[in-house]
Design a protein that fits this description.
With about 170 residues, this protein is α+β, with helices and mostly antiparallel strands. The chain is about 30% helix and about 40% strand. The protein is built from four helices and seven strands; from the N terminus they run αααββαβββββ. The protein has helices at about 1-15, 30-45, 50-55, 75-85; strands at about 55-65, 70, 95-100, 105-110, 115-130, 135-150, 155-165. Strands 1, 2, 3, 4, 5, 6 and 7 form a seven-stranded mixed beta sheet that branches. Strand 6 (about 135-150) and strand 7 (about 155-165) form a beta hairpin. The chain is globular, with a radius of gyration of 16 Å. The protein starts with a helix and ends with a strand.
Length: about 170
């Protein structure tokens, strides 16, 4: 039940207005994690940056998706992306795009006895996919929540929730 308890605690923290204060968009933590978000999704969708992905996720990374289930472990998660990249032709357009919705990103710092050890990042993103004509079409819109932790001074994603997927209107 450790996993179930972890998810419950994370959701309560994200949904509670009184648990912790969100950092503003001009705060260093917000800017740092917004940049990390861009690096993560650029590596996953645009550049097939497998080394970047291996560095950005903790070894015990867990991914919870409302449509495809749970992926446990960095190697399993990054391996799926690497497999997709291996089948992609270098000259082909990227098959999918991820777009962070402006103004949706929120960052909540996590402290232990006054020491910053992590953060919860929450936002909304949309996806576009190539159709048979090679044109991008609207795909899903979804919410995401990342739990970032500081490991030896480096921000890494330990848990990721991807949920509320539905077609864009």
């Amino acid at each position: 039940m450790r996993t179930g308890n972890t998810i419950l605690i994370l959701l309560l923290l994200v949904l509670s207005n009184t648990s912790i204060a969100q950092t503003s968009g001009d705060h260093e933590l917000y800017r740092t994690l917004k940049a990390q978000d861009s690096i993560l999704f650029d590596a996953a969708f645009n550049t097939c940056g497998i080394e970047v992905l291996n560095a950005i996720f903790t070894e015990d990374f867990e991914f919870y998706h409302d449509k495809v289930g749970i992926t446990e472990g960095r190697d399993a998660f990054v391996g799926r992306i690497a497999d997709g990249c291996a089948n992609r032709k270098p000259e082909a357009q990227q098959p999918a795009k991820r777009i962070l919705q402006p103004g949706s990103l929120e960052v909540y710092p996590l402290y232990n006895n006054g020491q910053l050890y992590g953060a919860i990042q929450h936002g909304v993103h949309t996806f576009e996919f190539l159709n048979a004509k090679g044109e991008y079409q609207k795909g899903d819109i979804a919410r995401f929540t990342h739990v970032w932790v500081l490991e030896d001074g480096t921000w890494k994603v330990r848990r990721e929730l991807s949920y509320d997927h539905h077609l864009q209107q």
